[in-house]
Specification:
7-stranded parallel sheet; 307 residues; single chain; 14 strands; alpha/beta; Rossmann fold
Length: 307
């Protein structure tokens, strides 16, 4: 059914050259969709520029996936203004242009970080409790998207993801790529907050979630605007590092570092019961299997000059 739905459909994807965007675009093309990519390059095609975005919407997309934005906690700490401007204004532009051009389905990427401090697992009706600029910017975009949905009956869906990992992620500030890079270079692995627990969702499972949301029927959508997607098995940072070392057959040295991670959340994982019940979604790739695929990719493709 899904292949029939996507066949020849015009699909606009912002952030199409990012880690998740590349995988989503590849999946859409394999299903027969015509992808309209928005790619930021050398400061051009910034989604906070509405005039730049207008021609993409004039191609009459049937679905919009808004993935573009500042996605790093560290970037929010170091450049809060840019983070708020890109995430909020970018989302506002996508929503307003979707309203004007009557886009039938809009998927606004979000994150489990918006839940902030609390007692996990977090559910969709738990109130956001952000503190740092990144989480606050994403909470603001979530509220903006819900406002457009309620005020203009805009068919918006908001997925909140756990940490996504897998082949192709070259952002070495993230735990898994950073750990893999250091091990491949035979360097000590830096670690902060070794007991903090997180979920790690394999990229293929995340893409499947996006595709299901893009194809969700109006009947199923109703007031179901927000969906959590997680792996169902929170893991401590230290255990992730040791698991990667074991799977690589490497004897690793862990170096505890004192990073300035003010406001870091101790434990963060979500309930994805709603996605299972309404969409029939569940994660299919186990952590060991996903890490194994990632390890193989990094061994073949990693350029080790970024330390």
């Amino acid at each position: 059914m899904q292949k029939k739905y996507w066949q020849n459909k015009q699909v606009l994807v912002t952030g199409a050259a990012g880690f998740v965007g590349v995988h989503l675009v590849r999946a859409l093309i394999s299903l027969g969709a015509t992808v309209i990519p928005v790619i930021r390059k050398n400061g051009k095609n910034d989604v906070s520029d509405r005039q730049m975005l207008e021609p993409f919407f004039q191609k009459n997309p049937g679905v919009v996936f808004h993935l573009a934005g500042e996605a790093l906690v560290e970037k929010g700490q170091n450049a809060p203004y840019d983070t708020f401007r890109t995430n909020f204004m970018g989302t506002l532009n996508v929503l307003e242009l979707s309203r004007i051009h009557h886009v039938p389905r809009i998927v606004i990427a979000s994150t489990a970080h918006v839940y902030g401090e609390g007692v996990p697992p977090f559910h969709e009706d738990d109130p956001p409790r952000p503190s740092r600029p990144y989480e606050t910017s994403k909470t603001a975009t979530d509220l903006l998207a819900q406002s457009y949905a309620d005020s203009f009956n805009l068919p918006v869906v908001i997925p909140r993801f756990a940490n996504i990992y897998g082949p192709g992620d070259t952002n070495f500030t993230r735990l898994i790529p950073k750990t893999l890079q250091h091990i491949l270079l035979d360097k000590p692995v830096p670690m902060w907050g070794g007991e903090a627990k997180r979920e790690y969702l394999y990229i293929d499972d995340a893409v499947e979630a996006y595709l299901m949301l893009g194809a969700i029927s109006d009947i199923k959508l109703e007031r179901n605007r927000i969906f959590n997607f997680g792996a169902g098995s929170p893991v401590a940072v230290r255990d992730i590092i040791n698991t990667i070392g074991k799977l690589m057959g490497a004897k690793i040295e862990i170096v505890r570092i004192k990073e300035d991670r003010e406001g870091e959340i101790a434990d963060q994982y979500v309930s994805w019961e709603k996605a299972s019940r309404i969409l029939g979604w569940k994660p299919k790739v186990s952590l060991d299997e996903g890490l194994g695929r990632a390890i193989a990719w990094y061994r073949d493709n990693l350029y080790t000059t970024n330390l």
